[in-house]
Amino acid sequence: MLNPENTRQDDLRSGHSPWLAGPPRPASAGLDADIRCDVVIVGGGITGALAAEHLTALGHDVVVVDREREGFGSTAASTAMLQWEIDLPLRRLAALYGFDKAADIYRRSFKAVEGLRDRIAQLELGCAFLARDTVYLAAGEVGPRELLDEAILRQKAGLPGTLLDHAALLGAFGFDRAAAIVSPGSAEADPLSLCHALLHVAAGRGARMIRDEVVSFDATAASAAVQLSGGHTIEAGHVVLATGYVMPDGVGSALHRVASSWALATLPQPPAALWPGPALVWEASEDYVYCRTTTDGRIIIGGEDEETDDPERREALAAAKTAALLGKLRALVPGAEPTLGHAWSGAFGQTVDGLPLIGRVPGRPRMLAAYGYGGNGITFSFLASRLIGALIAGADAPWFSHFAIDRPEPTRL
Ligand SMILES: Cc1cc2nc3c(=O)[nH]c(=O)nc-3n(C[C@H](O)[C@H](O)[C@H](O)COP(=O)(O)OP(=O)(O)OC[C@H]3O[C@@H](n4cnc5c(N)ncnc54)[C@H](O)[C@@H]3O)c2cc1C
User: Which CATH number fits domain 13-77+192-251+354-403: 2.30.30.110, 2.60.40.350, 3.50.50.60, 3.40.640.10?
Assistant: First the structure.
């Protein structure tokens, strides 16, 4: 478990992703007096930025506090495949929670990517956002039979997608795999530019950006406040926790664990080396690999997850993981040039059901958690911003409990 007191952004990611030359952030400063606001958001990564944009649009007076540079935690390490397909396939989610609930969750994930796309377009945010199909490849323990079951269930849930057999897949995309499901409705972006663009919009509406560390939280039924290491206090109607993979004491969930994941970006490829779309590609197996392209023609490939959250161990494994990813790139896309432009790694939070942790912190009704984990982290961060906006407005709905941070550990039906 990462220690919230001494885990810093450098412990969350190593190496250099292609995003690190992103646009400037809005200026942040320390406080010289106690202040009050409607909502204080702790954490200025993509999760805090999405919440800040949405809550300021709703008319709230928002303060964003980050102890380091906003966006340079996990957000800067993200490969930013903005997928509605969840890490846990629909058939496995349905085995945990029943078909109706699992289908509802998948449809909400689909709508979240749509909502993010529409918001980026409305606000004209420059973040290399591009709509993309996904190619979900048979791999390892998941063959054509399992993909057929998945495709049938998705169709029953009203989700789009087409099952391709080996010949159709090879002909359409050049991937030599037994089968794949090809689906519209996902996207890619530059996550750091998106984060900073959202913070700019929020700051333009009056959100205050504070550089300090939150060292304690106080949230009762009547009021909320955070104490800063600089000595000042921010009183608020609500506190939103968007601290990424470092969760404050008392907020953790038995469903959640932090592992590590590796990624690399090649140098720009000749256009003929890239597959049609270029779609987002990911494997259906537990031991997965995934890839996308960038607007300047690089291939990003990631995976090789390990059950460790130790930054030193992550560093020690970097060379071997990079070599393994380059090998997987050669196997998957034989026409690509396996050159190395960037290599990086990061802490990667996952839950046993593949779902985020969003909603009220148990026993502290004015403290709201926004932890969008896993390969759908950013999709879930968008969902978190809307769910939290609704909670602050006093709304409630049965589906909020799908993502509750105190939901019980699922048992197979
Ligand atoms: C290698 C890799 C690949 C990934 N690929 C994808 C992908 O393709 N698609 C996808 O959707 N997701 C992906 N993810 C996951 C996604 O990146 C994360 O879900 C997302 O970036 C989390 O953003 P965040 O804002 O919650 O956290 P962060 O970006 O880590 O931001 C949290 C912020 O909180 C601040 N903070 C923490 N504690 C305090 C405190 N006490 N006081 C003040 N500030 C504090 C930190 O300084 C930090 O800036 C990937 C992650 C990794 C590592």
Answer: 3.50.50.60
